[in-house]
Amino acid sequence: MLTEAQRAQVVRSLLESHRTKKQGERPSQMFPEIEIADSYAISSAVAQERVKAGARIIGHKIGLTSKAMQASSKIDEPDYGYLFDDLILNDGAKVKFENFCVPRVEPELTFILKEPLKGPGVGLIDVLRATEYIVPSIEIIDARVTEPRKIFDTVADNGAAAGIVLGGRPVRPEDVDLRWVGAIFYRNSEIEETGLAAGVLGHPAMAIAWLANKLAPFDITLQPGDLMLSGSFTRPVWAAKGDTLHADFGPLGSVSVQFV
After folding, report:
1. 186-205: buried (b, 16+ CB within 10 Å) or exposed (e) per residue?
2. How distant, in Å, are the alpha carbons of 245, 247, 253, 259 from that of 91?
């Protein structure tokens, strides 16, 4: 476990990387004794500093929701980070490549709540009952720390959250079997990845349930209007300057973003 001074040093390093868009030293390299609890505390402290600077927390992102991604990170559960209002982008947005360190993109489903959710004991039906809309999305992820990253580094770095593009056709949870929502993911008209939302813990709503239960010991409630990014069901795709990334969700429409 790190001291408060050590945690504060990591927070300062991450905030500097946010400011300069240049990767900083990995927390696990700075302090090999770091634990997951330290990483979440660091992520929360960075979020608090961002809020002080004017950003607003509008929900959470959940990552590492597939077995393959968990195995690659040597963990047995997902992770989470914060979503801020300045991360939201409209379908077709053009974003400056220079605003990121090493951007990658993933197709995901975003849940928008109409009722509060609080664990413990939240399950699939609870999430569906509390959800107003599910929106096709692209998440932009970015590593503000150098490779090779460990799970401690990704969690401290807010789960690598860097942007969320909302688009397509929002649907109500009772209107579609979310397990079978698929995406064909293109980069510059070339298919890079395909996948089904069932790859997210068997059902993407289970990611939201996991988060509500994970936050229960901290007396945190997921609030109406919150956006919950449920996790990718493909591997991340690298984005270079000039690339257009396009996610075709079939009957749910499509979402795209261009790096300029």
Report:
1. bbeeeebbebebbbbbebbb
2. 11, 10, 11, 13
Alpha-carbon span 24 to 178, nearest angstrom = 38
Instruction: Give me the chain's average pLDDT, please.
Output: 95
First to last CA, the chain: 41
pLDDT(71) > 80:
no
Q: Quick one: pLDDT band at residue 66, thresholds 50, 70, 90?
A: confident
- Is the CB of residue 226 less than 8 Å from the CB of residue 136? no
- CA dist 161 and 140 (Å) reads 7
- Percent of the chain predicted with pLDDT > 70: 96
Round to whole Å and give the CA distance between 255 and 132.
20
CA geometry: angle 103, 108, 113, nearest 5 deg: 120
**Residue 200 dihedral angles phi and psi, to the nearest 5°:** -90, 90
- Phi and psi angles of residue 169, each rounded to the nearest 5 degrees, phi first: -115, 105
Tens digit of each residue's pLDDT (9 = 90 or more) over 115-157: 999 999 999 999 999 999 999 999 999 999 999 889 999 999 9
